[in-house]
Amino acid sequence: MTYLPLIKPVSALFGLDFSLSPVSSGKPIDFDAARQELNNLSNYLGGLASTNTTEYKWGGIYLQGNNSDLNVFTIDGSQFSSSSYLNLSGVGSNSTVVFNILGNSVDIKNFGLNLNGVNKQNVLFNFVDATQVTTTGFSFQGSVLATNANFNFSNGNVEGTLIASSLSGSGEFHNTQFTGNLPNVPQPEPPSNQWHPPSTGTVTEPSATTVPEPGAVLGLFLLGTLVGFSRRSRILSQSASIANTVH
């Protein structure tokens, strides 16, 4: 479990100090890389199995935790929209709490939240699927991760950081940094650049052909010539002897 410094105010996240900074051109923040990293984080957290129980009753959402380190709750976005309050219990004050809220559109109005002593700096509202989130009269006691959502935020406040695709409304933000412990997002294995030749079995080397040296070829030629000359000489000599005998 490690602390991921992505759910921080922009100034803290990128080490920027805007108090006395002169105006200059440039691109100090790689927004594309940050968006991809935060998308990966949201998707990974959204895929975690719920570690506790969630009940919808009496017009509210009741969550019972039991983990002193990390508590993950899965909440139906339609229930969040139709309920009027959320009650959390059984979670230690230093535990990290992740609310995975499902659904494409979530509308929260005049909603009450009771964390029962849990540190709001360890609370994360993760809108996993949402493309539209509308809140009115609601105080997020924690940070909000809604990377794909158009966030309409009116008459309320966020006690932490809000990360969304776009933001509109008149909500209020308080400088409360997220300090919870979240699991590491698994990184894909880098492709291997090492080349391995295909297996072709046993390769039989062709037999070597002996090529005679040029001097050896010349010697064989001369030897053949001499042998032929000697044979012709014997034949001529025998022919001459026969001729003398006849005469």
UniProtKB/TrEMBL annotation:
Any coiled-coil regions, as ranges: none
Region (Disordered): 179-210
Pfam families: pAdhesive_15 (PF20597)
Compositional bias per record (Polar residues), positions renumbered to this chain: 192-210
InterPro entries attached to this UniProt entry: Choice_anch_A (IPR026588), Ice-binding_C (IPR013424)
Location of the Choice-of-anchor A domain: 23-175
Protein name, per record: Choice-of-anchor A family protein
Organism expressing this protein natively: Halotia branconii CENA392
